[in-house]
Amino acid sequence: MSEQIAATQVEHIARLARLALTHEELTRYGEELGHILAYIEQLNEVNTEGVEPLAHPLAVHNVWRVDEPQPSLDAQQALQNSPATDGRYFLVPKVLEHYDAS
Amino acid sequence: MGPARQLRQQVISGECSAEEILNQTLEAVTRHNSRLHAFLRIDEAQARQQARQIDDRRGRGAALGLLAGVPIAIKDNICTRWGLTTCGSRILADYRSPFDAHVIERLLAADAVLVGKTNLDEFAMGSSTENSAFGPSRNPWNPDYVPGGSSGGSAAAVSAGLVPLALGSETGGSVRQPASFCNLTGLKPSYGRVSRYGLVAFGSSLDQIGPFATDVADLALLLQVIAGRDSRDSTSVELPVPDYVAELEQPLDRLRIGVAAEYFGDGLDSQVRNAVEQAIREYEKWGAEIVEVSIPHLRYAIACYYLVCTAEASSNLARFDGVHYGHRTAERGDIIQLYSRSRAEGFGAEVKRRIMLGTYALSSGYYDAYYLKTLKVRRLLKEDFDRAFARVDVLISPTSPVPPFRFGERLADPLAMYLADIYTAATNLAGICGISIPCGFTSQGLPIGLQLQAAAFNEARLLRIARAYQQHTSHHTRRPELPR
After folding, report:
1. Which domain holds residue B225?
2. Residue B31 to chain A, least CA–CA distance (Å)
3. Which of B6, B28, B71, B148 has the highest Cβ tally under 10 A?
4. C-beta separation of B302 from B419 below 8 A
5. How many CB atoms lie within 10 A of CB A11?
6. For B305-317, how does the pLDDT look when each residue is reduced to its tens digit (9 = 90+)?
7. Mutate which of A27, A43, A92 to test chain B, going by most B C-beta atoms within 10 A?
8. Nearest CA in chain A to B315
9. Is residue B223 part of a domain?
10. Domains of chain A
């Protein structure tokens, strides 16, 4: 009933999702996603012409609050769970020279 | 341990101190938790400090809150300022929240005693707790069976009598299904009834925090404490919170109960069907009018749900990147490799599967075909419920199509596990409220749950209708036998 998703496409999705998957995982998820998507395709039986999409069950839209400063986490609290900081900033490997938009 | 309302009375009257009740809970945890693995961690110092403070305040004649001295368990995807908040995931194995969730502030203000954090499927993704990075919880009714999920640890803790109350969370049935599997009363409040501030996000348009109790009266007490507007969750609504406890005592007149054939189709276990049909006959006997209604799009609920929840999850879980918090890979590389390896090492198989599916559905070229199409079907499903609730007060159905299953039975096929949510996921998609209450047992002595659903923000009437069943029946009073 289901077609497997092409390996190149699974790799593309994994890259978008920022998941370094093993070959075994790529193969397995390719098969499983094909399976699940084949099941999801049954939505195409439903005539949705003229139906507005429903992203959210409540009829609330923009909810504003007064634009006044309020207390928030201090730097020490914000950094307390980070695996690498210098006490003031989050530390990451150099970004710019390796920048790749994909 | 007695019901929460009774413990509260004992604390207020001085018959029993909050610390004595806490000691009973800790003793029961010591005796049973290693076998059940309901709690991931007990926060004894924190709990004892709260209990002593409550006893002190009572001693000084202060008025005590709605949950005075009542021990409660918290699902480990709800942030607490003390201890850890792991979400059942390796990626958050050491995470310490710098703030309390809104519901935690409410519980503390109501003088509840927060005992510890309970096990769950990783990031609440699963129906059995088998996806927890820290090992599964066991069903107190039979340890060879799953307690349900994803809030399985909270359900097991209440079912085994370790605590009278617990909080879980729901995205597609994660309170109601474990309540059904563990012979408990469990509620999915309407979307917007309880603030999600401090609940680690999974599917933001579906998530709600929900209470577990042994009966409707206790559940109403807990809902009373956690419901209401919070400015930090802009989807929590301004509507006034009814007095759920007082409303339980109001008489029920002109009760109309809807039965939709779509909830009794293929795949429904015959013992579950018999128990639910029996419950329908009993309601009829007590004077309810049984009305045939239809939810034609229910058959698409699982397809719709797994598209919406994975799309939202793929976005919500992007925050776990090995930089701000959580696991970071030890391997060296550039920033993209740091993200990708940290996430691959930190997330379990089901979480990765859902992130992949959601990313696929939102990716360029598929967004219209999958995501938008799904949101249109979601509206049609919600309109089905609107039409039904114009004619009836509640819809009655099974909570789960099957009774509790054995460990490993559904792990091999993710789709088979997803289909277990067939009767619960639509509630979240439509934003309405639903409750699971005990309605019988299988021939092997495993619990069966009855689901009642009502229109959004009709919790008070929903609870009254559920309570009527418990006033006439005794399934909810049965407790599992635990080894000494």
Report:
1. 4-255+460-477
2. 33
3. B148
4. yes
5. 13
6. 999 999 999 999 9
7. A43
8. A17
9. yes
10. 1-46 (1.10.20.60)
Shortest Cα–Cα distance, B192 to chain A (Å): 8
B455 contacts on A by Cβ (under 8 Å): none
Chain A residues within an 8 Å CB radius of B354? none
Is B377 within a domain? Answer: no
Q: What is the domain-level CATH number for residue B91?
A: 3.90.1300.10
What's the gap in Å between the CA of A20 and the closest CA on chain B?
5
Q: Which residue has the higher pLDDT, A32 or B415?
A: A32
Per the CB < 8 A criterion, the answer to whether B236 and B196 are in contact is yes
Tell me the sheet residues that pair with B260: B293
Which residue do the tokens 């018999």 mark?
B274
Nearest to A19 among B355, B363, B430 (CB): B355
Q: Is B161 a domain residue?
A: yes
Classify B191 as helix, strand or coil. Answer: coil
Cβ separation A90–B323 shorter than 8 A: yes
Count A/B contacts: CB-CB distance under 8 Å: 166
pLDDT tens for B399-457 read: 999 999 999 998 888 888 888 899 999 999 999 999 999 999 999 999 999 999 999 99
What is the predicted ipTM?
A: 0.93
Residue B383 φ then ψ, to 5°:
-65, -30
d(CA B13, CA B9): 6
